[in-house]
Amino acid sequence: MPRTPSRRRLLRGAAALAPAVAGAPLLAGCASGASDGVGPDGKVTVELWHGQSDTGRKAVEELVADFNRTHPRIRVDAGGGGVIADAMLQKVTAALASGSFPDIAYVFGSDLASVARSPSVVDLTDALRGGTTPWSGYWPAAREAVTLNGRLRAAPALLDALCVVYNKKLFRAAGVPFPEPGWSWDEFVATARRLTDTGRGVFGTGWPGTGDEDTVWRIWPMVWDLGGDVIGDDGRSIGFARQGVRALETLERLARDRSVYVDPKPGGEQMYQVFLGGRMAMVATGPWQLPDITGAGVDYGVVPLPGYGGPPVTISGPDTWTVFDNGSARSRAAVEFVRWMIQPERDARWGVAAGSLPLSAAAERLPRWRRHAARTEGLPVFTKALETARVRPVHPAYPQISQALGEAVVAVLLGKRSPADALRRCADKADAALLIPR
Prior knowledge:
This protein is α/β, with parallel strands linked by helices. The protein has helices at residues 9-21, 54-70, 88-98, 112-115, 125-129, 140-144, 168-174, 185-195, 213-216, 220-225, 243-256, 269-276, 290-295, 328-341, 344-354, 361-364, 367-374, 379-385, 398-413, 419-434; strands at residues 44-49, 74-77, 104-108, 147-148, 151-152, 155-158, 163-167, 205-208, 229-231, 238-239, 260-263, 282-285, 300-303, 314-315, 319-323, 389-390. The protein has a 5-stranded mixed sheet with strand order 2-1-3-15-6, sandwiched between helices. Strands 12-7-13 form a 3-stranded antiparallel sheet. A two-stranded antiparallel ribbon has the order 4-5.
């Protein structure tokens, strides 16, 4: 999808939508394609719900037109599904419950565990591992985002990574050196403090403050760098009870220094507007934001996330092409399309248009992508970060874990709870969610 502030609604989607639909029936009735989608002329029609808008929609439609032209026995109908990608989980869940669903849907990676409970989701393990591009050639984050219990439940569709974008003009004005790879969270906090000018309304950094997934996903690299994980090894409790406290202590320092702008609106739109307006020195974001930053005339640089001394790590929030079973002919045709879409040539075209990153090293090496990266300041830093990017677990309890941690982050940013107390309350709720049979 176009990389605008709405891109992060995909991250909110897991926490905001999944609990609401977790109890909805996902067992489909009779499939929507009674004729198996094969017309009198022998051509198979595949229904694609992509949920894209603007440049993303145009890019998908152009790719679909190319596929239809080169695959005369398959016709992909790129109608889109009638909703934007942010609302796709609700749309797909209702469709599965009614027994009338598409052949392919653009499903956020954070929603895949909920959707994949349906027996109508096609297992793509053999199709992708035996594809033209070796499965090992895709970035680890792309592979992990579609893997559930060792099986590939979808194809990767879009990839990003989180880095820090900084305003060079503000750094120069304050006489502060530009950040460099390998910097620490202590240095980040100190830099944010030095760049903050309350009299001029300038903040060192920003953080979404609504408790949604946009609030939460930024803290996972901190947890991972400290040796923690989202879910503990026993699978029955969180894996960040200690590490989460330390990460929250870092946020507490930013809040105490008044160097962090806490965005009260969903999606981080106000936070980004503060940055684009030249009143924020640093913001953790992804490649989807670069077109807006460039358009605003900000003289910017990009640097990897800070760390606590461990190996470099960031987070990726991949999206997926999920295939549904409307009969053998339509399923085979749908699988053929998604395999075609994720090949390097098409992936590079899609990534350039959508403001995302290449799914594989092979796509990253293509001239089309190299030209795009060369003319986009900082984009290679995001691509390099994929080498150490991790993803949130494909687990049905993740939305509840995210919601609990989101509440903890906001409580600390607003000074309502100490890091230890906030994390204790988070653990109580998240551990309870992990004990619910799935």
